[in-house]
Amino acid sequence: MAESVSAPRRPFISGNWKMHHTHLDAIAMVQKLSYLLTDADYQAVDVSIHPAFTALRSIQTVLDADQIPIALGAQNCHWESKGAYTGEISPLMLAKLNVAWVIVGHSERRQLFGETDEWVNRKAKAVFAAGMTPIVCCGETLEERQAGSTESRCLGQVSAGLEGLTAEQVAALVIAYEPIWAIGTGVVATPEDAQAVIGAIRVEVGRLHGAGAAAAVRIQYGGSVKPGNIAELMAQPDIDGALVGGASLEAEDFSRLVRYRLT
Ligand code: 13P
Is residue 18 part of a domain? Predict the structure, then answer.
């Protein structure tokens, strides 16, 4: 029997709060979450939360003070470390707040704010340069899926987003496959459909960055992930985690997502 090439990959559940929760609501949410999650949860699963920029400092303080092993994440950043970019936030500023993960290229940024593959790539490199790790997003529209171009769309976004990164960097980062038609719609991709795209992404990473990077890179699924559907998604061989929007906003739901293995 052929030896498996897949490295053990730690499950990774991330909560993308988008433009929700004031810093006060965010503090309350994290405190509640920390009561619900246990050491056993943190031993089994990596957890990150991605509040709005205005809540990062407050959440950093809560996580530090209570030594809560939840990683702090941001939802976006600029690629320059400083400059005349009104309204932007630099990777350096995030790193100083102990931010560990930065989502880059979320479909909402691409669709609503005109982010291009080239920007996503610049951001991914800048995040690494500041000592953090990017979560690089990809995903197709419903029209692209219906036209049969899901794979080419996603693989194109991944290859452009990761261009010029070292194999070590690719091994360390996270890719989030989020079909746009599944985001916030309640329509979740079937585990088989999600696995098919994510498996193809892993093969593409191998082709471009080597077998070691492909075996190590963690790939999350995102799009209407709920406590009731996460276990079957996580059971797929190439799905290593979830990037969760709506169901990450309440501590109860999010803790159930982190505990998917017990449901
Ligand atoms: P929902 O979980 O609300 O569908 O959002 C998914 C998402 O966009 C996470 O980044």
Answer: yes
- Closest by CA to 134, choosing from 165, 179, 88, is 165
pLDDT digits (tens, 9 = 90+) for 76-93: 999 999 999 999 999 999
CATH number for the domain harbouring residue 157: 3.20.20.70
Task: List beta partners, residue 46.
Answer: 12
CA of 250 to the centre of ligand 1 (A): 14
**pTM to 2 decimals?**
0.96
The answer to whether residues 122 and 81 touch, using CB atoms and an 8 Å cutoff, is: no
| Residues 124 and 104: beta-carbon distance below 8 Å | yes
Show the domain range for 175: 12-262
Which among 70, 65, 136 is positioned nearest to 103, based on CA atoms?
136
pLDDT at position 8: 87
Distance 3 CA to ligand 1 centre (A): 36
238 bridge partner residues? none
- The residue whose CA is least distant from atom 7 of ligand 1 is 245
5 occurs within a structural domain? no
**4 pLDDT exceeds 50?**
no
pLDDT reading at 7 higher than 60: no
Structurally, the chain folds into a number of domains equal to: 1
Query: What letter would DSSP give residue 183?
Result: T
Ligand 1, closest atom to CA 185?
Answer: 4
